[in-house]
Amino acid sequence: MQITWFGHSAFRLDFxxxxxxxxxxxxxxxxFVSDKEEAIKxxxxxxxxxxxxxxxxxxxxxxxxxxxxxxxxxxLGMWLVSKGxxxxxxxxxxxxxxxxxxxxxxxxxxxxxxxxxxxxPIYLGNPCGVxxxxxxxxxxxxxxxxxxxxxxxxxxxxYEPKIAMVPIGDRFTMGARTASLAVKRYFKLDAVIPCHxxxxxxxxxxxDKFVAEMKGHATKVVVPDKxxxxxx
Length: 232
Known about the structure:
Strand content: 25-35%
Low-confidence stretches: none
Number of helices: 7
Structural class: alpha/beta
Shape: globular
Number of domains: 1
Order of helices and strands: EEEHEHHEHEEEEEEEHEHEHEE
Distance between the termini: 6 Å
Strand order of the largest sheet: 6-5-4-3-2-1-16
CATH topology: Metallo-beta-lactamase, Chain A
Radius of gyration: 16 Å
Helix content: 10-25%
Number of strands: 16
């Protein structure tokens, strides 16, 4: 599997001839340094963890250009449909769908979710994490935006992820110490990729504190260069 980090919490997964985007926040993302057209090339699916603008990002534009199917919770998805989305795979927490070449599961996250840019905030369903499973590939768990919670142990037991994208930027998500505890206590990962940092001044600028907290642990910490694919 090839994983590309585009800054903040935006990722692209390439495996078995499939190209998937998770939380494609490109426009307005200070950490996005890639070519957008290249980043979305060949994408067939977009997976969204929750409804905040820094995660929904360019979803509608990308879906229109590529014909990609968007999979997310029902409330957020129907809101996107009202904005013009044509291909929506409705889901909710705990559910799994077969998307052809891989399966996606929505799992719990402790955060919030809504469109807060207008005069009246709009509820957009519960925040989620995303588990991606494909034959012959390591199971991937994108935690979304979240705090630590003990049911991470159940997620580990049910899905046995080997790669995890973990938010570490603090203030709105776990910080380095809490994120490292979540990884160490609940998961047996081959690799962990920190995210949700280094984009806005209000959150941590680097992954250095998380790397330090993980020092000596068996899980490999992968800190990708933005826009540069890594093999896992």
